[in-house]
Structure formats: C-alpha cells, structure tokens
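User: I've been going back and forth on whether these two constructs are worth ordering. Before I decide, could you fold them both?

Assistant: Sure. I'll take them in the order you sent them. The first construct and its structure tokens:
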Amino acid sequence: MLEGGAVLLFSALPFLLTNAETSVVCAAGLDGSAKNISLDPVTHQCKGSSLTGAELETMIGLLKRFASCATTLVEGLFPAYAEGLSCARTSFRPVEIADRRTSWRQDDKRLHVDAFPSRPMQGRRILRVFTNIDPDGAPRRWRIGPTFEAYAQQFLPSLPRANPGKTWLLEHLGLTKGRRSRYDEIMLFLHDAAKRDLDWQRGTPADDVKFGSGCTWIVFTDQVPHAAIAGRNALEQTFYIDPAVLARPETAPLAILGRLCGTVMTTSKGLTA
C-alpha cells in the first residue's frame, strides 16, 4: 500500500513530550532564517533555531529522540528497508502553515511531489514520517491529489530537453551535492510545473485530510501529490530508500517516468527502470 501511493495513518500513535520539551515547543524559537528547525544527522548541527543554552539542548534532544523513534517504527514496519535506509534531516515545524507567505516555488500549500534542488536523489525514494504534537490539539490539514502517473502525464508534454552541460556546471560550482540525473531533472520539473500552474491547482481533484494532534503518518512524498494547507507544531523525519530494497519497484516514480518517457533511467547504483 505504501509503495502504491497510500498515506499510512496511525491515528493513536503520539510522540509524548516531557515538560521541558513542551516548553520549547511552545516557545517555537525560530531565528527567521528558515521555516523549520532542523537537525543534521551527520554533524548534529541544529539550524533555524534562536534557542540557546539549556533550551537549545532540549530541542536537540527532542529531535534526536524523534529520529530514533521514527527509525524504529520504519524498520519495524518494513524490515526489508533496513539495508537500504538512510536517515536524513529531522525537523520541527512550528509555524502555522495557513498564515505563511512565501514564493510560489516554496509554497507547500500548493499540490506537489517532493524533489530537492541541491541534493540529487538519483532514483532513491523520499519517505517521511510525520507526527502532530500541537499542545492545543490543532489538526494538520493536507490535500492529497491524483496518482503520480496522472500527475506526471499532466506536465510531461512540456518537459524541456536534457541539458548535460547544466547538470555538470551545477555540480562543479558546488550548487548540487552530486550530479543531477535525468530522473532528478524530471522530478524537479514536475515539482515546479505543478506549483506554477494555478489552474491545475484549483481544478484537479484532491481529498482534504485532517491529521489530529497525537497521530502519526508515513508517506512517500516523492510519489504522492500533497499540499499542507493548515496546522502547526509537527515533527518530521526524512528517510532515503535505495530502490533495490523496494517490494514493488514498478510502482516507484523511477519506473513510471521511465515508462512514460520511453527512457532507461539509471540510479546511483546502476539499477535501471
């Protein structure tokens, strides 16, 4: 179900906070440089927070604990993923989404699939675990759009031609962490094309979903067109999944785009779709 595009909802799986953690969650503590507070799994550097001293240590501890719990959950539910699972950033998202003003490309209130401009995935999947920890019980509201294949078919006719020179230049200037594959270029195009097309945003069928406080949900955000339209105080853990460990690789965006484009797409480990 997950690899087929389902959102797995655990309606009674809260992430319980200590009193000190509740205090820093209520304080939010954004420094204005980003919309979220995030923790790097390698450097353990916390970005986006104005908290200092004991409060900052409490926030870091909260993010580390959530990362550990999310990893245990994913490996417990999907043991086959363990060999191909990479833990990426952990984030705390305190800002009310409905009130946030940003550019169209960064506007997550518009339906989109996830793709990273500076971090090429080269076929790896983007799996995310979310938990609503709002102390006041405010739900987090999403819109969930059509299937990935229908989404891709909508925008692929206007896909620009490949530009190998551009991907080489971005890598050598240090603007991307590695070279974008054709898969990465297409995924970024789909992300931007959908967010740019306001007529499609208004007219495409989508389901409104509420994720209540105390619930957890898991989704491949590179596959499920989604928009976060309201809510605050969510924790999120990102994982990268090697396509070699997927149960149904034919349902992944890598395979679907390869079929729709009539192109063999190669992953970072030489797998093809």
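The second construct, handled the same way:
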Amino acid sequence: MDTNNEGGRGPSLAGIRVLDLARVLAGPTCTQVLADLGADVVKVERPGTGDDTRLWGPPWLPDAQGDKSRDSAYFSSANRNKRSIAIDLASEAGAALVRQLAQQADVFVENYKVGDLARRGLDYATLSQLNPRLVYCSITGFGQTGPLKDRPGYDYIFQAVGGLMSMTGHPDDVPGGGPMRIGASVVDLATGLYAGIAILAALRERDHSGLGQYIDMALFDSVATLSCHQAATYFQSGVVPQRLGNSSSGVMTPYETFRCADGHLVIAVGNDSQWRALCAAIERDDLAADERFGSPSGRSVNKPLVVAELGRTFASLNVADLQRRLDAAGVANGPINDMAQVFDMAQARERGIRVSLPRSDGVEVPCVASPIRLSATPVAYRSAAPKLGEHTSAVLADWLQAGEGAVDDLHAAGAFGKGT
C-alpha cells in the first residue's frame, strides 16, 4: 500500500485543523478518519491519565525496551495520525488555553456530558463568538435534547436500548437463546463515521457561507439508523422483528449459516438464477424443479423446508469442496473466519488492510487500515497513536506561535495540571 502519497495532490484535508476533545471510541473514530485524510488533529487529554481507553489493557503496547507501556492496544485502534496535548480543563488557565486553540481551529469535536463544557466556557455558543468559522461537533449518548439527554451510556447500552439486541441472538426457546450483543462496537463506530460525514458537509457549506455550525450527534440516533431496513418493515407491517439466530427475516432465502461435514459456511441467495445455480452446484435438481421454491416469496414462505433440505445435503460436503462448487456457480458464500484467518487471507494482503505505524520511540504498532481508497489524494499513514502530551510544545508553537517562555508560563499557571 502506498502510504506516502507519492505523485498525488496531497491529503484531502491538508490545512484543516481539528481540536479533538473526544474520548473512548465514537469521537476518536470520527477524528481518526479526519486525520487519515490529512487534517492536523490535536487530541486534548486529561493530564496524568489521558483518554480513558489508554488504560483499557491488557494487551499493552510495548515501549522501546519491549516492556509494557501505559497505553493499551485498544487506544491505538482509533488514535493514529494525531498529536497529543495534555491540558487540565478544570483549571481556568487550561480552559483559556483551549479557547485560544479553538480560535485557530476549523473543527472542534467533544463528547462530554450535556452542559459540561458550557461551565468551562468551551461550548459552541461561546466558541462560535470567538471563531465564527468553527464547525463544532458534540457526540453524546442521547443527544442534546429529550428526557434522556443527561443519561450516560456506552455502545453496549445502546445496542440494548436501540433495539439491536432484540434482533440479535437465538430465540428464547432454543439452546443458547436470548439477546446477544454484536461483537464489534458498531454503534460507536457508526456514530463516529456519521459524525465525520456531518463535519465534511459542514466544512463544504462553510466554503459558501464563511460560517461554521453546530452538529449534534447521538449514539441513540445512530443505532436506530443501523436498523433502518428492519424499521421500514415494522413501519409497514406492524410486526416487531424477532431474534432469528443466523437466519434472516427478509425475503432472501437461503440466507443462512449451514453446518458442513468439517465446519460452517454462510450461503446467500438473492434471486431465482442464483437459486437454480445453487441447486445445480449441489446436484439438487429436485429443489430447483419444486414449484414451491420457484420464487423469492415462495422460498421465504417455505423457509423451514428449504433450510432443512439444504442442510441435509451440506452436512455431507466439506467446506472447501462446497466453496469450489459455489464459486464456480457464482453463488455468494463465505467461511466463518477468525481474526487470524482474516488477516492471513491473500485478499487481505493484496488490499493492505493491515498497516504498521511508528510511535515516536520507534516502536511499530500494527493497526487496521482505512477502507477509504482515493486515487489522487490517498489516505496518509504518518504515525501510530501518540504518547500522552508528547506534542504539547510543538502544537502550541504551530497553532499559537508560543515560545518556550510562554509554555513555561502556562505550566506555572496550572494549564497542564498540577505537578507537570
């Protein structure tokens, strides 16, 4: 993968300054996308401890001597290409310093509780008076309005409250039944991605008006959007979606996980030609000729019978043999890979979905690459997640033209916390 943008026009967001007061995953995901696209993202962290996820180990990132550092692998997943500055927002000197930085920023991202930053003079109303061009994005659990706006929450909570867990897992009456969370933090990630899209739209609008605007992002809103097609079905039918395990409530049938002689394989059939191709590949012409299964709706209505018949045949076939047959027939299928298998795939290596980036001490940190592929302005991979506060002097010099004397004065005033 080209990580140096040789021959390109420069990163897409070069020149955009982002002040990042977000922690954990949703906000950092948003700002990492902006950083990957070339923005100068300055991560403002709490002195001493930093972003909560720095402490979410093990595993821990190694230091230059190979010993455990104070930073978790989790933290490294959403904070590459950023610079870190540690500022004590509880001190007036620290809050004033952030206001100064915000006057030089294009984007301000935060995920504090509703009203917290207003008490420090770091809310949109205050900062937009100082910098009318500022795009200010707040990311919270339930948003800035509504009866639940003051409640905290994490991804897991919103998978539950937002309906995902009501549709994920096996029915209660089968072994292992009950609600189940999705393995990945999909609500955090989706909210971060939507926030990034919103920020890019606001920057585009600013090109015309010259003014920034306020963006109110909520994990609750995002989780509802993740279920948009199930919600559309509910709106029209009045039928509440239920947990179906690895099956599907949609018209696509089969859309299942099948047990084979030596493992499992996922099969997805979306139309009649794929259905006939599947039947031919497994030598079940009887199923192709059965009028009950001759249309998507027919296969959906008779899903238990379709799944039972296919399951009987698949149980006698090896996964690799079945894959060869289905690939030749053009039928969508896939094995259930673990993480080691995913990154060992030739496809993964060809696409460069794993990259290794250096920290300031020379330690190489592996991470998952951005899925964004731009032909002229590709993603630039510059550095792994920063150490806490390591760029304080450099950021203040770049953004505020502050010399060593000014930085020393800020230290003395307590802007960087007590004892720093």
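Notes on the second construct follow. Confidence is low (pLDDT under 50) at residues 1-5. The first helix runs from residue 26 to 36.
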